[in-house]
Each structure stands twice: as structure tokens, then as C-alpha cells.
Amino acid sequence: MDLILWRHGEAKEGSGPIADADRELTAEGLRHAQQMAEWLRQQPLRDTLVLSSPARRAMQTAQTLGLPFKVKTQLGVGASTADLLGAVDWPDHAGAIILVSHQPALGRLASLLLAGTEADWTIKKAGIWWFTNRVRHDETQTVLRAVHNP
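RE: above sequence
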């Protein structure tokens, strides 16, 4: 299984009646999301499923990939590591999952996958962390394949 954690691009500041979930990408955030989407399209991914937070900025980020995506409420602002893992069926899903969501949950999930414990790691805005799960010599391994930032 390939699991790609993709943090949404930079969003406009919320003010007044604009709720956090309604914040949209800035011009730079959109440009960075498009750069990352172009990089993802060049990767050898198979059977790709794209899952997005319902927050507007996350859905705009997912849209840049040009693939259909599913919105999952458990990936929204304030999600926990357990919420993210529950949405992706790690490590048993066949194929690739691209998960578009938020900090701090994405960073905590990256920490859990690599270090075995949750810590407050930071994934940059529009950044991608790509993990693979494999079995070698009867041992299950989690491999960090790439970290890519705009």
C-alpha cells in the first residue's frame, strides 16, 4: 500500500463570518497545490484513491490533481490520527491512497508511521509525505519513499 499525506495549500485568513472550513486557497496556495499535483501525476501510482477533508481549502487542493475524490468528514479540521487511519485502512488497502487533510493530524500520523509514537511533526503547507508498507523477510516495514514540498 502507498499512503500519501498531502497537506492543503496556503489558505486565506478567516475573518468575520468566514468559518475556518470555508477558507479558500490563496493564489500562492493554489499554485503550490498545482505544482504538487503535477509531481504526483508523474509518480508510478496504481489504483489511486483520493480522499479529502470537507474543508474548502483541502477540496481545492485535491481538485488540482484532476482525479475524482471522496470527501470524508473524519478528515476535517480537528481530526485525530485515529480518524485518519480509520479512513485509509492502513496498511491493508490495495493500491495508493492520497489523503488531503490538515495539521496537526497529518504530522502526528507521519510520526506514528515512522517512529511508532505520535509527536507534533510539521508537514509544510501543500507538502507531501509518501509512505509505503511492505513485507520483507517476514517482517512488515513502513518506508518513507518521498517528502516533497513546493
